[in-house]
Amino acid sequence: MNILLVGGAGYVASIIRPALEREHHVRFFDRVPVPGAEERSTVGDVNDEAAIKSALHGIQSVVYLAMGIRPGTVKDAGETKAAFDVNCQALFRWLDLSMRAGVRNFVFSSSMSVYTAVSRDHGVIDEETPADGWWVYAMTKRCAELICHGASQQWPDATIVSLRLMWPLNETDWLDPKKNARSRTWHPTGPNDIRRLYSAAVNCRTPGDHVLNCTGDTEGAVFPYARSMEVIGWRPMGG
User: Least packed by Cβ within 10 Å: which of 18, 47, 90, 234?
Assistant: First the structure.
């Protein structure tokens, strides 16, 4: 399958790239070429319609990894614009152009930041728990999920999967006790789990809008993985 990683030069893309390239033909879209894959990289802004249309030629699955800002970034007016530009305006454009180009598998990288409860002691948080995050990163991810839902209504034969990620880590960061610090409600997700997650999502062929909570909670005690098992057959294994 021909897959396009939007934000292909970023952190999460660097984690999942090896696994996807073993099974698929992978291309990249980012503001800079992806090292080692320059000939498969489209350089452009995520709101550049001409560049998007060119990059979508022959693509069957789009994985949207562009973030706008990183979680924890200072919330000033400039960051607000960047977040809405990437997570809302550009996402709408990518979904619309992708669907019109015949793409029928679209994977959006959302965030567990949509829940304020993640940062405090709380009971079970599953997909039925209402999202309530207000700060700019969380709010734009919530709006983005609504855009994905709207696209699924417009193109009911498409499979659109929103993965609410919790602190995905590469191999180096996974071994860093400061970055891989855990608590009852904080479960970073390991690199192998992230690779399996995206591989499962791009291979999903169940039409509709699927929003999945994806964390490193291997027991599923706080963040149950029943929904992700049902839709894409994924659960965290702890690595």
Answer: 18
Query: Radius of gyration of the chain from Cα atoms?
Result: 17
Query: In the 3-class helix/strand/coil scheme, how is 70-128 assigned residue by residue?
Result: CCCCCCCHHHHHHHHHHHHHHHHHHHHHHHHCCCCEEEEEEEHHHCHHHHCCCCCCCCC
Instruction: Give the C-alpha distances (Å, rounded to integers) separating 157 from 133, 172, 208.
Output: 30, 39, 7
Domain boundaries, position 96? 2-110+126-165+191-213
Q: Any idea which residue has 């009911």 for tokens?
A: 156
Rounded-to-10 torsion of CA 60, 63, 68, 74 = 170
Closest CA to 132 of 110, 121, 148, 117: 117
Within 8 A by CB and 6+ apart from 82, the residues are 68, 69
CATH classification of the domain holding 10:
3.40.50.720
Q: In a 3-state reduction of DSSP, which class is residue 233?
A: coil
10-residue block means of pLDDT along the chain (239 residues)? Answer: 97 97 98 96 97 98 88 62 95 98 98 84 88 93 98 98 98 96 91 98 98 97 97 97
Predicted pLDDT of residue 117: 77
Can you tell me the distance from the alpha carbon of 26 to that of 5, in angstroms, rounded to the nearest whole number?
A: 7
